[in-house]
Amino acid sequence: MTTAQSRRVDYSESTRQALVDSAVDLFTKRGYAATSLDAIAKRARVTKGALYHHFSGKQALFEAAFRSVEAAVMARLGEVVAGPGAAWDRVLGGLKAYIKICMEPSYQRIAIHEGPVVMGWERWREAEEHYSYGIVKSALESLIEAGEIDEMPVEVTTRILFGALSTGATIIGAAADAKKAAADVMFTITKVLEGLRRAPSDG
Description:
Layout: H1 3-30, H2 37-44, H3 48-54, H4 58-81, H5 87-101, H6 105-119, H7 121-145, H8 154-174, H9 178-196
């Protein structure tokens, strides 16, 4: 690749990222229906033609914004769950971090509220699983390997816990008092995990 070609690729990638960042910001503040492609292009300081070079339309741009938000969240959670310390503490730390993220405007608006409506339930669910399912499974496996909980059917248990987390996120997103809802969700899911935990005498 020549220097000129490399610069074009870099420019193209930076333009695309600027559009995604603009979309995340505007979809968060205004919602999908009230956000126009013109507004997104203007905020990104690109032409509408440049926008259509990268995205086929508004829904495609929303899905890119959704992926951007989810990827950032999973990176943050991955650092906690795979970090130093005992497996139990890391998993609870990951749960606490996730509950906190559920209160953040971009995740709440784009991933929880708008996602199912814009993408359709099935497509949204598949996308959620693509990002979240793996980290829940990894956390569960780390607890089993550490002897914190008994051997369990990993796929089934992961889906049940994933469903609980997804429902918890929806509850927080819909609550009039998000802070109280977050505390209730944290308390409830922690209790569920503690119910699976081996008693000290078992180990």
